[in-house]
Amino acid sequence: MALIWQEILGIEKVGIEDHFFELGGHSLMIGQVINQIYKKLEGTISYKEFFQTPTIAQISQKIKKGGYKAIPKAQAQGYFPLTSSQHKIWVLSQFEGGNSAYNMHGALKLTGNLEAAKLEEAFRLLISKYEILRTYFKAGYDGEISQYILGEGEWNFRLFRKIIQIKVLQRFLNIYRSSKPLFLI
Predict the structure, then answer these.
(1) How far apart are CA 95 and CA 105, in angstroms?
(2) Residue 19 — pLDDT band, cuts 50, 70, 90?
(3) Do 12 and 38 lie in a common domain?
(4) Quick check: is 142 in a domain?
(5) Whole-model pTM above 0.70?
(6) Which residues, 6+ apart, have CB-to-CB distance to 31 below 8 Å?
(7) Which of 41, 134, 142, 166 could serve as 150's disulfide partner, Cβ 3.0–4.6 Å?
(8) pLDDT (average), residues 144-150
(9) Cα–Cα distance measured from residue 56 to residue 14, given in angstroms and rounded to the nearest whole number
(10) Whether 47 contacts 35, CB under 8 Å
(11) 92 and 160: one domain?
């Protein structure tokens, strides 16, 4: 398990009494750790148990053994129904002042010589590889909200290089936080 943590947290050495969150772990990384525990150790642990017992020593006591079963890839189709969780998030986002809690926003200031073409290509490769980065929700002909996945050639990503004043960026983030969720790259 220490090797799993080291890989996901990007650190060289982890002790069995080290606290996951104090090492820089966060809720999104927990999913990665749980997935690796399932694949490599053939065991399971819930998010709740992980949060309550965030050391390797404690987690080792909570893991339930069970065989790894890969989830088969869904057959390609025009659209997919929303899961109950996705539907709930979508409904909440439609209210005035919709919740942006499920959107991670921020900005990075890059210094030095930026090879923009390579950065742009890296984003294209990520978007191409992960369908979730090409997924959007919309109402179908029947009025039901469904998720659609853009295929190859149906999306475009371009990196815009601009110098943005901090005040303008702060104003944008304030507007974004108070608006309905957006999918921004």
Answers:
(1) 20
(2) very high
(3) yes
(4) yes
(5) no
(6) 47
(7) 134
(8) 90
(9) 9
(10) no
(11) yes
